[in-house]
């Protein structure tokens, strides 16, 4: 499958100034931008910046960023699922994962996350993919936001809905281990029925195991 990437951008006015939401961006452009020191959700900022540059260079990898002038203050990543996860077992070239989304505290609540997802879906090539995301409550910034798991889950769900992702049932043990965890997905308009059925089999692998 050919991995087309069409660049899109939009301006977002926030209480803390104007942001540019853009992508998918090239590894060169990404490496050239500053990476905000508060982007610490997954690993130290310098390491995460390097990891994003690598993802942007993958054929299927897509990075959409929110930037304040020359500084990245938020991003979302798309790439093939981790080989250790069940979602990679189908070896589907039309299934990609929204692996990480992060916005610095200063711009949270300003619609930055929603707009990262909206700009992601402006690219017509996304209609060729099933996009999934797995939400685990232990990745959420409950302490920083003061929200409980259900309040945070509601915010995450609303944000994902902005990109057209919806809740899907699954028997994945990690997701099933806590009721706040969830699988969300968006099935592109051009995804064929075989891929949809394969995705259904991945969602419910345990029902075929005895």
From TrEMBL:
Every copy of the N-acetyltransferase domain together lies at 23-172
Q: GO biological process: any one?
A: acetoin catabolic process
Task: Please report the organism this UniProt entry assigns to the protein.
Answer: Cytobacillus firmus (Bacillus firmus)
InterPro entries linked: AcuA, Acyl_CoA_acyltransferase, GNAT_dom
Q: Which CDD domains match?
A: NAT_SF (cd04301)
Name of the featured protein: Acetoin utilization protein AcuA
Query: MF terms per GO, please?
Result: acetoin dehydrogenase (NAD+) activity; acyltransferase activity, transferring groups other than amino-acyl groups
């Amino acid at each position: 499958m050919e991995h087309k990437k069409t660049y899109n951008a939009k301006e977002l006015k926030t209480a803390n100034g104007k942001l540019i939401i853009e992508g998918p961006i090239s590894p060169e452009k990404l490496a050239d931008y500053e990476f905000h020191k508060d982007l610490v959700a997954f690993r130290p900022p310098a390491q995460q910046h390097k990891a994003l540059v690598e993802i942007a260079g993958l054929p299927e990898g897509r990075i959409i960023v929110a930037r304040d002038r020359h500084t990245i203050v938020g991003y979302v990543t798309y790439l093939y699922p981790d080989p250790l996860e069940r979602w990679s077992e189908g070896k589907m070239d039309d299934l990609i994962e929204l692996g990480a989304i992060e916005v610095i505290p200063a711009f949270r609540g300003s619609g930055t996350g929603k707009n990262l997802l909206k700009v992601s879906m402006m690219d017509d090539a996304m209609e060729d993919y099933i996009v999934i995301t797995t939400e685990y409550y232990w990745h959420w910034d409950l302490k920083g936001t003061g929200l409980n798991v259900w309040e945070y889950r509601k915010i995450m769900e609303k944000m994902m809905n902005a990109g057209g992702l919806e809740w899907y049932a699954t028997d994945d043990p990690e997701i099933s281990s806590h009721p706040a965890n969830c699988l969300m997905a968006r099935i592109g308009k051009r995804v064929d029925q075989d891929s949809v059925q394969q995705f259904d089999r991945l969602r419910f692998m345990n029902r075929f195991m005895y």
